[in-house]
Specification:
By secondary structure, the chain is α+β, with helices and mostly antiparallel strands. Helix content is 63%, strand content 9%. It is built from 12 helices and 5 strands. The longest helix is centred in the middle third of the chain and has 52 residues.
């Protein structure tokens, strides 16, 4: 009878029952138990070094960075232990999601995110308590190989089950939700700041553009009304001028509405909307959109404005002769890639607005990667979470 191997991420999988049989599973468990002592010794020495050194130096400027580096290393130890448990014990545990250290707050925020990382701290606890357990399992297994051979499979299964329980309890990503909540609370400030900046921009555009033009239009029409009887020719000229002002005001309002949410995006989707914004770029842009469905409105809007801002950067800063935009879906991610053959040298630390764009994407669980060596070409890749568009929105 073949034993059932726990499925990926199934941390509630029942422990294998004891068996008095020598098979491949038993030998793997014996190998795991014999390897416990050297693995536990390395982990214990690492933990003591990290905790003692980092804690003793926290009164200095290098203490917390050293402690953060130790927690980052602990994550790698946890990864190795999960791999060992997966190979020898059949314990399938999902890897924790990586720490997202970029975004608002810079270096200090990244340091704080590492210092409060539950995955790193639970790995340190796991390695700390493993030394006495590792010594005991090593000795019992080694002695049983020569003295208690008939019952060794039973002992190995019992000790290995205890290891399985420890790995699942301390090395599984079960506390990831708490860290993700902390990240989202931190990123919420980016969303608030971005929304406030957008509102100020709309208010400024209305005040300085269409609103001022409409005030002048009202004044011009008032003067034309006064001159209508005594000087019809002048009044007609004023009406003609007012008619031109109306056209300009309407154009400014259309541009403003496009900056809030373009109608072509709502009506026809990303392909048509990105082709429209590409046509306004100062360099030729090839647009390729490979989507079998439309994402949620919010994701679609973010994708549009991301590409729009990247194409504006190309127009202003790149000196490129050609550019391309590609959009596609991979599993549960929407990917955007904008490439140009310009001079290169763009970075998230530069003044081209890329850092702000990266922060806005980070706030919605997205990612921005910039590859722009000096001399070009420049490739900017953005990832967004894919969420299905509601049926109600498609029927509007």
């Amino acid at each position: 009878m073949t034993e059932r191997t726990p499925s990926a991420g199934d941390t509630a999988e029942p422990l294998p029952p004891p068996r008095l049989a020598y098979d491949a599973h038993t030998w793997k468990e014996i190998a795991h138990l014999l390897a416990n002592f050297p693995a536990a010794l390395v982990g214990f020495v690492y933990v003591v070094t990290v905790v003692v050194t980092g804690a003793s130096l926290t009164v200095t400027v290098i203490g917390f960075p050293l402690l953060a580096a130790g927690l980052t290393g602990a994550r790698q130890l946890g990864k190795l232990e999960r791999a060992r448990a997966r190979a020898l014990l059949g314990v399938r545990i999902e890897e924790p999601s990586p720490l997202r250290l970029h975004g608002r707050g810079g270096l200090l925020r990244g340091l704080w995110m590492v210092l409060k990382d539950p995955v790193g701290w639970r790995t340190l606890l796991y390695e700390l308590i493993r030394l006495p357990w590792g010594v005991m399992t090593f000795v019992v297994t080694l002695v049983s190989l020569f003295v208690l051979w008939p019952v060794l499979p039973f002992l190995a299964r019992g000790l290995a089950n205890a290891d399985r329980a420890m790995v699942r309890a301390l090395l599984s990503p079960s506390d990831e939700l708490e860290r993700r909540i902390a990240e989202l609370e931190s990123d919420r400030g980016v969303v608030v700041d971005t929304a406030a900046a957008d509102l100020r921009r709309i208010e400024r555009d209305l005040h300085d553009g269409a609103q001022a033009r409409l005030v002048n239009l009202a004044m011009g029409l008032g003067l034309a009304k006064e001159k209508l009887l005594e000087d019809p020719d002048s009044a007609a000229a004023m009406v003609d001028e007012a008619h031109g002002e109306v056209k300009l005001a309407l154009q400014e309002l259309r541009d403003l509405a496009r900056g809030i949410h373009p109608a072509v995006l709502t009506d026809r989707g990303l392909d048509a909307a990105l082709s429209s914004v590409a046509s306004r770029c100062t360099v030729p842009v090839k647009v390729t959109v490979d989507l079998d469905a439309r994402p949620a409105e919010a994701i679609e809007g973010i994708a549009y404005f991301t590409v729009s801002e990247l194409l504006q950067n190309i127009s202003k800063h790149s000196g490129a002769r050609a550019a391309s935009v590609e959009v596609w879906r991979t599993d549960d991610r929407l990917l955007l890639q904008v490439e140009d053959d310009g001079r290169g040298g763009a970075s998230l630390d530069g003044g081209s607005g890329l850092r702000g764009l990266a922060e806005r994407l980070d706030a919605v669980d997205g990612l921005l990667v910039v590859d722009s060596p000096q001399g070009g070409p420049t490739t900017v890749t953005a990832e967004l979470p894919w969420r299905e568009r509601s049926v109600a929105n498609d029927r509007r």
